[in-house]
Design a protein that fits this description.
The structure is a single chain. 69% of the residues lie in helices and 13% in strands. It is α+β, with helices and mostly antiparallel strands. The protein has a single domain, classed as Outer membrane efflux proteins (OEP) (Up-down Bundle). Strands 1-4-5-6 form a 4-stranded antiparallel sheet, with no helix packed on it. Strands 2-3 form a two-stranded antiparallel sheet. Helix 1 packs across helix 3, helix 3 packs antiparallel against helix 6 and helix 7 packs antiparallel against helix 8. The relative contact order is 0.14.
Amino acid sequence: MIKRIFTIIALLWISQTAFSQENTGELKKLINQSFTYFPQFKELDQSLKVAENQIELAKSAGLPSIGANGSYRYTDPVSEINIGSGDQALHFQIMPNSSYSTMLNASYTLWDFGIVKADVARAKAGLQYAKTNIAYNQNQMAFQVASLYYQIAYLNKAIAIQDSVINFLAANKKDTEIKLRNGDAIKYDVLSIQSSIDLENNRKIDLQNSLDKQYALMEYTSGVKVSTSPADFSFPVVNQASLENALESAKNNNPEFLLLKDRIGMAEAELQQSKTGGRPSLSLLAGTGYANGYTPDIDKARYTYNAGVTLSIPIYQGGRAKKQVQLTQSQLQQTKLTEESLNNTYKRDIEQTFIDMKSNASSLLNANAQIKEAKEAQKLAQSRYRNGIGTNLELTNASTNVQRALLRNLQYEYQLCIAELTLAKLSGVKYW
């Protein structure tokens, strides 16, 4: 039975593909327009630039550092040496009162035991997460725009059904007014039909109000003022044929799963980054410039330079590096456990979507027959009423039955389309 249902769905989709190509193109246009119009995506694009800058910042830690400095210092008293020589003592000042220097210094880390590499890897993981986050929000926005798109189609078709009911009742009101003039009907019959017309007009007003809101939401989301409605509910994607295939597709293509994988990648990168804490570093230092304080003329500035290496070895940091590693290990484990919950959630949602598809497809098998039967009954009731055999109540009931049958069929078509759209969203299918 299930295979038969999905075969029917596939055949319906194939038969309507050519007819719905124009509408499909309009849907894709609206979705892609929302990606450039909606302010949230501008924020997401900026976050991508921030992540790229963080990579460059991390890389810069491994580049040479050059800086210039100048200093002046007055000191008093200063060290002096007095040496006796005959009747006169020799006086030597071994450092000037005014010390000044201008230096150009450079440093370069020769060996950091993977600290910079770990920082760059962490920044790259952040960039990948930012990219996937954009894809995730695009998937959410596409579903929102498509839902609005098909809601507009549903409301327009529902209004068309209301118009047909109102026109039918209006025609029968004219027949009843003729009967009233001929003495074959009473005033109550005319008032009863007018009451039904007013009721259906109120329903149409409610539907039109909802439709106007959907148009406003579409403009808010995509920036496009839509003036037409889709012709049908043909969704432009053939979805997965089984729960297992849909779940596997979700794990490989759904941005929420990809975001989780990126979070795990970021946690692993952070773990490697934390392991570099407390590692030694070997740096090359060099400088050149002018300074005074050199004998024999300590006040004269002289050209000077220096070069050397510095080995920095942290000995005790209160166990901070070890505790940081333990923290990131716990965070990584927590992130991995989230994957199991996500699998269960998606399995449930996909299974419920398949149930909805099966239910609506089954209902559609009988919907056309119900519409045909209701319309035949309506014709019969109308004929009986015109010939003076039937009553106004029979005619009203027949009209109501046709309306209900058409609305039920429309509801099944819409719900099946939304279920297909939901399955595409869950399984990560890009239909735009």
